[in-house]
Every structure is written in C-alpha cells, then in structure tokens.
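[recover] target loaded
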C-alpha cells in the first residue's frame, strides 16, 4: 500500500519518466519528420545533378574513340561546324548536338539532340539507326521534357522560347541540353533567343562547359549573350553558330575585355575536370 508520504516522490518519478519518454519519442519522430520534409522538397524541386555528379566514382576504365584513348574522367568534344558538336564518352556513347541535314557527323550517334529554330538545327528525317532522338520542342505542345541515362551519360533539357518570323514568340521552341559525363556538366544553348530567368538558371545548375551561339543577331545580340555567359559562370566557353570569321572576331573583340580568349589548333578537344581552366575562358575550336 502506498503511503501518503511516498506520493510526492512517486509523482516526481512519474514526471521524470514522462520527460524521458517524450525525449525518446522526439528523438524518433523528429528525424522522420525531417526526412519526410526533405523528401517532399526533393520531389517538388529535385536536386540538380550538375551539382553532385563530379563526386561519382568512375564507371569504366578506358576506351578508344575517334583515335583517342579516353579515361573514365575524360570526354571528347569535336566541333563539326555551325551548332553541331560530336561528344564522345569513355563508355562509348556518342552524342551529336543540333543534328540536321547539312552538318553531319562522321559516325551514327547513339543520341542526337535537335532544335527547331531553323532547318540547320534539326531534321524531320534522322538516321533510323540513331538510338535516341531528342527533339528540343514538343510536337504536341508544351515544353519538351528529357531525362535520359545511357551508360555513363545523363542528358536533360531546359526549355526556352524563340521568336517566329512574324515578330511574335513560340513558347518552348528551343531547349538547352545538358550533358553530364565524366564528372562534367556540358551545356549546349541551342538557338537561344533571350537571357535566362532565375528559374532557368536554377534548372540548368552549375555548368563546367557551355557551347554558345555568337552570331549576334539570329539568336541574340552580343551584349545579351555575354550576359548569359556571365550568369552561367562556366569555366570553358566554346563559341558556335557564326557564319564567317568577321562574325566570330566581332564577338571575340567584345568579350576579350571580360574573359581570356584562346584559339585551339584542332576542332576536337579532350576535357576533364583537372584540365579545365581555373576561371572562365573562351576557347575557339575551328569548325570543319
């Protein structure tokens, strides 16, 4: 039988026991709630893989492509002309950007990306042997949505708008394609017609390499394109989409006061995280 004298002590013990029980429940529930909140946030706004891919372990050792032996930390980029690049991964994936009927790669790629701004950026008749044809627009309307993984390559897109010939606009007519390979994030701006919104910059993430149209008119004026380059903060800028040396030099004259400019001896270059310049640098690859 509990005596009246022991009741305060029991009540104190009960309060202490309840306090420990609350702490124990909180220790279990709080992490679960935080995990749930993080999962909900991740579902609503998925983490940008361009911010994390550099830490991934190598998936392959070495493979020989295009006469160059590539390590798993390397990617080969070959400027074919206009807005078309051939990108080769160490895992054997070949990508051709802005695939069209005028500038063709010497190989059939596993992946071809296209934009519909002009016929020199797409074709309605791609080689049927191409495994993945990624159109930068949605024929059914709305934005194109690509999120493709193939061996050691991840490809995704960020849609942008384009002008039409009547002075209006076509929503989602262009895509910025982003290639995550060899621990690098390589962005191809396609036929970009406007500066990028904060939402688009967030969706793109931190690029290491960016392929930039520098014609100064058909896409954007030079000042606007330089603003895009500054906003993206990529360490390597590869000019494209120029029609003659005068057009190219006009862009280089404008940008050399902001970033160093280098002229490459060859149209192809092997890139890795270790060989990229420490600061944003413009490198001109001679096209075919």
């Amino acid at each position: 039988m509990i005596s009246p004298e022991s009741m305060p002590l029991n009540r104190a013990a009960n309060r202490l026991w309840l306090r420990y029980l609350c702490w124990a429940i909180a220790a279990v529930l709080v992490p679960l709630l935080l995990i749930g909140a993080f999962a909900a946030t991740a579902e609503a706004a998925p983490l940008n893989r361009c911010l994390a891919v550099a830490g991934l372990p190598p998936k392959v050792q070495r493979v020989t492509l295009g006469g160059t032996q590539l390590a798993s930390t390397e990617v080969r980029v070959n400027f074919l002309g206009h807005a078309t690049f051939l990108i080769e991964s160490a895992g054997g994936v070949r990508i051709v950007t802005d695939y069209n009927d005028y500038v063709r790669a010497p190989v059939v790629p596993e992946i071809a990306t296209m934009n519909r701004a002009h016929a020199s950026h797409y074709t309605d008749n791609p080689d049927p042997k191409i495994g993945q044809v990624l159109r930068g627009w949605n024929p059914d309307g709305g934005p194109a949505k690509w999120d493709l993984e193939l061996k050691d390559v991840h490809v995704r897109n960020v849609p942008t708008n384009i002008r039409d010939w009547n002075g209006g606009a076509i929503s989602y007519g262009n895509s910025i394609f982003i290639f995550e390979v060899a621990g690098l994030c390589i962005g191809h701006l396609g036929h970009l017609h406007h500066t990028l919104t904060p939402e688009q910059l967030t969706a793109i993430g931190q690029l290491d390499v960016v392929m930039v149209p520098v014609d100064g008119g058909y896409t954007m004026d030079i000042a606007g394109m330089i603003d895009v380059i500054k906003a993206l903060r990529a360490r390597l800028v590869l000019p494209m989409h120029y029609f003659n040396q005068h057009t190219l030099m006009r862009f280089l004259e404008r940008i050399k006061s902001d970033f160093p400019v280098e002229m490459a001896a060859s149209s192809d270059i092997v890139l890795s995280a270790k060989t990229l310049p420490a600061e944003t640098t413009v490198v001109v690859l001679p096209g075919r």
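[recover] notes: Helices lie at 7-44, 198-204, 222-232, 245-255.
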